[in-house]
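During the no-cost extension, the postdoctoral fellow (Dr. R.K.) reprocessed legacy sequence entries with the updated structure-token encoder. One reprocessed record is reproduced below for audit purposes.
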Amino acid sequence: MNKTVIGDNRVFVLFIILLILGVSLVWMFFSPTQYAPTSANEIQLHDREGIYYVNNQMDVLADGDDQWTLADVQSPPAAGQFQPASGKSAFGLTAGTYWIRTTVRNQSSLEQWVIRLNNSVIEKFDMYLINEKSMGTEQSSIIEKADEHFSSYYIHLPAENLVTIYIRTVLNGSMIIPIELMDNQTFLGKLKSEYIFFGIYYGFVLLMAAYMLSMYMFNRVTAYLYYSLYIVCFSISQMVWNGLLQELLGADSRLLVFLLNCFGNYEGIDYFFFISCLWFGLLFLSKILQLEIYAPRMLIIYRILNIMSPLVLIASLFHFPGYAILAILYESMFAILLIVSTYWSVYRGSLVARYVVLATIPFLGLATPTILNTYSLMQESFLTHYGFQLGSIAEYIMFSIALSYQLGQSRTDKENALQQIIINQNIQQTRNELLQNISHDIRSPLTIVQGGIRAMMLGIEIEPGQKDKFLNTIYDRILYINTFIDDLFELSHLEQSRENAALETIHFADWIKHEFDSFASTIQLAGLQYESSISVDPQAVITINPHEIRRVLSNLVHNACKFSSIGGTVHLHASSSNGEVVVYIEDRGVGIASEHLPSIFNRAYKVDQTTSSNGSGLGLAIAKEIIERHNGLIWVESEPGKGSRFYFKLSEKYK
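Re-encoded structure tokens follow.
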């Protein structure tokens, strides 16, 4: 995988630290502190005091057999069994029926109040008011379900009266009973703040789900589909938990009635969609973490959980006994597997797993209070009630980045694979052309040699004075073949050997002057004029393989001599500037047509393919390979009839 910002270990650790600090700050501001025990034996209501937390002054009685009536719990034997809640709102995994008793004295000018249960998945919530003055039970006439909130009720509390409130709650899962009492104005203000939060949150969730679904439709990557379904199921479960689904559909909604018939109660609906979201999350993680590469042993556990997932869903659908506990155990196994497999993939070098780690830190960090609240290890607060939603925002952002990274990586891999196919095709085409050229360049001189030897074997008479010429021709052809094979061998050796064992650091000005001077006689023996110019900084120091760069100069000078007319001029030039040295060899010969310029550095490519007299065509390919081994550049400028100028450029360094 390509290196990204998150691939830097220091940046990754910094992000982890920042996320942990952020989670710690959220815990600090929203940790449960409001349910502190109190010694008061009644709730005293006053004007403009906001919210009263009933759990501070309520007593609790477990009705294990679900048989007691209001009269039963008012009787002395049962009344003496009530235990103070002492601020607690969570009572562990003790599904069943609980009776709650609290006493309220209204010392305010208001008589209409709102009692609210912050748990919308409670199966039954029956409330009875006992006015101590009349000693009578007042129920439906003064208890009215609030339209604004699913689990809130309007109650009438006469001024200066002492009223005892009895509440009967029935739950099938964890017993969580946070209760608030407030005046109508405070109630509406709180609802307004909550709905603003829900509007922002679910708007963001809707956008994320639509984005992931569109990514799946355009790219057909199943990880996007799984994550989109994960978001949808998680959001529905949270809507049930917060009572929004019930409020949006209405108590008489056919869809809601159908769901209740299927799952028995609201908690069953909540568990079904929450387990569904974990199942899709499991499928999603198994895709993006690439466990078959980074954690193959973990795949077995993932498959086991994948088999368990539909079984847990069936258990919730058919109301199997203890399915709520089974669901909670499944959630715990999922969390453990997520942590272990993700961190193991990070250890094995997965960059996608790093994004998953960054997503799980805020999600698990903020969801942990809710989980602890489920086990009665942390009491009710804003954090325990909305922890999953707060954590999911950071999770969605991080996972969307992870998916974008994976998609980008997938596209890069496809592009690289396509590019490699094109390169392989070009290599095959070049190899075929090279073999054809080699066959042509060797066959022609071999034919001459074969013919000459055959003529001598047959004793064919050769004209006087032509014998030496005939033998020289054969010798030249054999020499050409040997030179061609030597060039092929050197080119192959250059391509296979990538070690710069023979590198030397030299003063380039002195070295190039010596090399230019050594070619003067070669140029002059070819019947040409020699010129040179050097404008290299005397302090320029360059690290090269002198033998290989000398070979480049020799090949370029040989080319210039070969294609220059007798009496022409070959000019050698070297200069330095901006940390680079540039050398060019210029001739004023026949030049090269523009259509040939892109190919002249290819192996065995010759401008005139009809003859082998102009050489093997490998000299420029060898020069190009050497210069590229030195991380330099080589190129040509030419115009037919005016000559050619071959350049190469190398980087220098100064003492």
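Residues 500-654 form a domain with the Heat Shock Protein 90 fold (CATH 3.30.565.10). Residues 65 and 619 are 99 Å apart (CA to CA). The remaining legacy entries will be reprocessed before the final report is submitted.
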